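Q: Convert this sequence to structure tokens.
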Amino acid sequence: MNYELQIAQELQIRPNQVKATLELLDGGGTVPFISRYRKEATGELDEVQVAGIRDRVEQLRELDKRKEAILKSIQEQGKLTPELEGKVKGAETMSKLEDIYLPYKPKRRTKGMIAREKGLEPLAELIFSQKSIDLESEASNYLDAEKEVNSIEEALQGARDIIAEWVNENAELREKMRKLFLTEGNFTSRVIPGKEAEAIKYKDYFEWTEPIKTAPSHRVLAMRRGEKELFLLLDTVPEEAAAIHLMEKEILQDSSNSSADQVRLAIKDAYKRLLKPSMETEVRLITKKKADEEAIKVFTENLKQLLLGAPLGEKSVMAIDPGFRTGCKLVCLGPQGQFLHYEAIYPHEPQRKTAEAGMTVKGLAEKFNIQAIAIGNGTAGRETEAFVKRLNLPKSVIVTMVNEAGASIYSASDVAREEFPDLDLTVRGAVSIGRRLMDPLAELVKIDPKSIGVGQYQHDVDQNALKNALDDTVISAVNGVGVDLNTASKQLLTYVSGLGPVLAQNIVDFRNENGPFASRAQLKKVPRLGEKAFEQAAGFLRINHAKQLLDRSAVHPERYALVAQMAKDVNASVEELMSSEELRNKISLNKYVSDTVGLPTLQDILAELAKPGRDPRANFEVFAFEESVNSMSDLKVGMKLPGVVTNITAFGAFVDVGVHQDGLVHLSHLADRFIKDPNEVVSVNQKVQVTVMEVDIARKRIGLSMKADPFAERSKKMEKKPDVKTQPKESEGSMADKLAMLKGKFGG
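A:
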């Protein structure tokens, strides 16, 4: 089926762009390859647009498969008419399609079926016509002891059961009811009696009501989690009177008689017994999907920012996984992250072998020519940082803390065991901390993103949707940066366009057997790596010391001949062209435009020749916490501190200020102006200045602000005469109370 026009209208792009993109996707093209190297074909669609086309066409194809199955089912029942077939084929959404199919969908034995078996359908039809009739006289005609219709009321009840099913199966009515639930319905949450103490983290939802249409994703997921944990009762319905009124308006005719009264009773029964449960289930699915999408969007944006964190680069690094009782695990790594040495030191209580530990650090730093020291930010992190900084190491040695979230997950993983089969778990964790400093992207791809600590309700959302979104994010980051073919791990290579786990392993095996790759062309010798995989992957793989200079760049091998022609036309070699801006300025790109190569690709090539293999990530900057603040007890309201954003959620940002407990900058305190999305002003790993607003040591809650004058609003409120009769609104609660509430909301 042709989806081009529909997708083009939905995504507000041209049909020919959709057509070209679909052809490339169906031909095995990946999102990074298509958006980077096929700009002429797609009209310069970016990764988001290409992925949008891919995802939408999958949805539409699934819809068409369902239509085929439904038409086959109705045809087998002998009930398919041209009109019905047209309705099925014309359904634009899955919910509309299922509404049309509902009357024909095989069901378990219902009250309506039982009534039909008793021969009451003609009576139901007569009543449903809402004509003025002698109700008792007509109903008496259906009394039949053998069929268990022993009274007029039993006959009328059976007729109403049939009518209730007709009402429930009315596709137009269901669509309007669905809209009513979504636009006029409310989430109503209340605590299960007797569970108040256990459910304290859900205190804000003990008596809570808010409109479905405006409820933010984090509150939807919080209420659902509370319900799942059997602490909360949750309803998702509009006012019953409004729902009944809508149904009567659609079903009842302008008549007032005994038949209409019976239909009215059937409508109420249809709502309570059939439509309400059905609509509530649908609304729960719809709102869950919407909440999932928003939570996944937050997660993927955070992950992208974390993966694209500034790398220190190829330097000799000492990494320390800090600890008190069990000591600090210290490793030394070479410039390519290779493991060189391990030792345990005990600078803290209870052993307190501080002098000995200091000599060890200084000796190893000198022996391995250490250029940077990475210290994990977990338990004893700040104490270890202070210890190292007191050693008077050369000023050229960088000392910095590294977020170690997920390092323990990596150290116990199959990946870590494969890399370091002879090392202890804790030693592997220290290696991971050091490598994160050198190249966050290369190291973090080895860890399940859900374990990195930058998500919101990641265990509550649709896991398949989450995995697909996270995979897309990692793939985008890896291919956006590019990969060193001769140093990349199997895990990193797996995410390169066109590869995957099997080819990534084959590349590593080939590299181990034959030594480093000398050229991209050599990739074609890797088992099972054919022309298509080479086409998709080659441009994203770098060989930093290759004889062919373009192998070091993002220029695709299919364009090497074109670059050579450019160089020849200005009487220069490719090397001279890459090193001389003057020569590059002589090139007239229009001269090289052809049926397959347009200006977008030519402009990309020229930019790449100027800075071959350029890393798009920011330059590394050393960061240090406030030295006088090491624990929550050191915090005082009003303090201004440096911090690092560790996680962003829909309701604010979490910031590490170096006290082993992240503080929350609520959405209302992220900026002096009003913002709806935290990503407008902050990103993961961003260095920020914050003001301490509240400290609750007992509950481990820290409230922070990024406003220039965070106490100004509070001062204005204090100037006003308080109204002792007025209870504080939810939005006016203390930051500590909000943090207590968010404890239940923040996942992972």
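The two ends are 43 Å apart (CA to CA).
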